[in-house]
Please model this.
Amino acid sequence: MNRAAWMLMMPAALAVLVAAVWAFGGWQDPERWPIRWLEVEGQLERTTSAQVRAAVAAEARRGFFVVNVERARMAVEALPWVAFAAVSRQWPDALTISVVEHQPVARWNENALVSRRGDAFEVAGTAGMQGLVQLRGPEGRQADVFATWQALAGRLRPNGIEASVVTLDPRGAWTVTLESGWNLLLGREEIEQRLDRFLDVHARLARVQGIRRVDLRYPNGLAIGTGEDTAAGEPATEIAARGDASRSIGPERAPRTYARTDGNHG
Model:
């Protein structure tokens, strides 16, 4: 047999040799190469180590060399509170399972939670969880609403103000409900600039009694609603400050009252 033919046959011969060692050497035998230890790593608050071990137990019983670490990882990530997992072999008889949990910071529409990373996930029995911002919007827009909430919260929090609800309606208009109960109507355009306009006059507005909502959809002013909302969503009375809002609202100057002509501000 010439050298060229031998070189062509070598890969096949090696494959047969490996298969023979595998079959007769018992590498696939879980009794000869069992997994005896399941080491769980990570800061777990809502998932127990026992749940993680139970998730990989069936795969681990296949033995050290046969265990499919990818399937084991997927089994762990199927647990309700698990965001990410990694599974690796540790010679000679252990699996290490690293777990990262979801950290909920908001609620998305009716059933889902949103993690600190912006991922939506669902866990049964979480309807009563407190301290979560409510995010609302059309399906498929969860990432946009989360990103907008983060941007607006970055402006509100330095001023000691927290949002409790952020809503994107089907027309693309934004409304932010503050923990104080005020509804800020930001419209569809320049919402961060409009929020800054609100922050410029917030201290003065805080001295006005009974504010229910602040409409910031005017080009260079705002309107405040102080009465009960009507069925159409408009307040019973509105006070508008136009032009230099910071000078128009305050105890030294009586605000003027304007009748609304339509509700189609941008």
Observations:
- Helices lie at 3-25, 49-60, 69-77, 142-156, 191-205, 245-248.
- The domain at 32-101 is CATH 3.10.20.310 (Ubiquitin-like (UB roll)).
- The mean pLDDT is 83.
